[in-house]
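Q: What would this chain look like folded?
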Amino acid sequence: MSTIGLVVRPGVDAAKALAEQVLAWAKGHGHSIIIEEESAKVIGAKEPGVPGYQLAVKADPIVTLGGDGTLIGVARYVTKRSPLLIGVNFGNLGFLTELTPAELLPTLEKFFSDGGKSLPCGERSMIFCEVIRSVDGAEKCVFSSQAVNDVVIQKGTQDKLMDIDFAVDSEDVMRLRADGLIISTPTGSTAYSLAAGGSIVHPLLSVVLVTPICPHSLTSRPLVLSLDARLTVRLPRHEGSTFLSIDGQVSVPLFSGDRVQLTRAENVVRFARSPSKSYFEILRTKLNWGIGNKSE
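A: My prediction, written as structure tokens:
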């Protein structure tokens, strides 16, 4: 008997209905299900759910019914065990949640028939982030996290531009004056980085994107670096508020003198891919990428 994880986006009736189908399917096939704690409330489960970080280590596969954010909220916690994430898109774009509702149960059938060997799967790298701060005269790590999409250092909404010192493998590269800085995986290249003027990068490339947010300069351009590089972001004195955001879902305050270290995460994310869509087809259909202008 296997354990299936289940995550359901709140406020989506179709996702809740599909969750009921998954519960019935699992029961009929002799599999147990554990449900993420907020999702358990959404579907009215009798038993309380578990936090996302526990789901990521106790279940395989994990079914997410929502958008990319729903999947990322679990994917960020995966360990070396790396369960297969099966994302069904009930959101807007769906770059990671590629499956349609009709494809879910056949995908589960395939997974349990041969351990997922016949399933089209994707594997994505993540970034590992640490915030180093001087505490009582000693440097300590005060926060750490993996990121599936991106790590963002950004000023407060009403604050002045901030200075950011950026280094690669201990070599000082630039001092940036801007609203912030995005450090993105190839997976996140179609997220915030794209909106800030970064490149679209194929998800299988082993690189990291460094994209300034509204830089006060004509020459500050996005960088594409090796994912194996060790990146360091330092914050010189800044009078306003500064925040570090992980995948747009977790936010912690930063202070003058803090150092943010970024490296390749030891763990990777595995997720089921659509049997009917390619990566470039998703770009074309979701972003209208590569589609020529129509003449009148």
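The first helix runs from residue 13 to 28.
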